[in-house]
Specification:
With about 130 residues, the protein is mostly helical. It is built from four helices and no strands. Helix 1 packs across helix 3 and helix 2 packs across helix 3. The longest helix has about 35 residues. It starts with a helix and ends in a 7-residue tail after the last helix.
Length: about 130
């Protein structure tokens, strides 16, 4: 099995587009009554990433390869959306742990950038309004 460049493009585009759309949908989830830190919210975000990735992959894969591999595109897109949700969750968890371990300071090095040793909440970069 060889990985085709078209498959890599489909995966990359699906992941990036799914991330953008899901980030835009997150405020709608809080308006719909999902508790931001609850399991229903996390499930809704992950399912949205999966669904959006599949739809995007379905749409762009046939356009990229010209052979009509829509089902393959949907599968690649769904996988990209799911991986996207997992990566974002892991990055947030690491940032949170790093912020707790650093005690909210700027970090060990001089001139550390703001937020390098802070969690998303402490750095003011949390994507959901409180």
């Amino acid at each position: 099995m060889s990985i085709d460049l078209i498959d890599i493009k489909t995966c990359s585009l699906s992941a990036v587009i799914a991330w953008g759309i899901v980030e835009a949908l997150k405020p709608a989830l809080t308006l719909a009554g999902f508790a931001e830190k609850g399991p229903r919210y996390a499930l809704a975000v992950r399912l949205a990433a999966l669904a959006v990735g599949a739809v995007v992959g379905l749409g762009i894969h046939p356009a990229l390869d010209g052979k009509g591999g829509a089902l393959t595109g949907a599968a690649i897109g769904a996988a990209a959306g799911a991986l996207n949700a997992l990566i974002v969750a892991q990055v947030k968890a690491r940032l949170r742990r790093a912020g707790e371990g650093a005690g909210g300071g700027a970090g060990a090095g001089e001139g550390a950038s703001a937020g390098a040793g802070e969690s998303a909440e402490e750095g003011g970069r949390d994507e959901q309004p409180r």
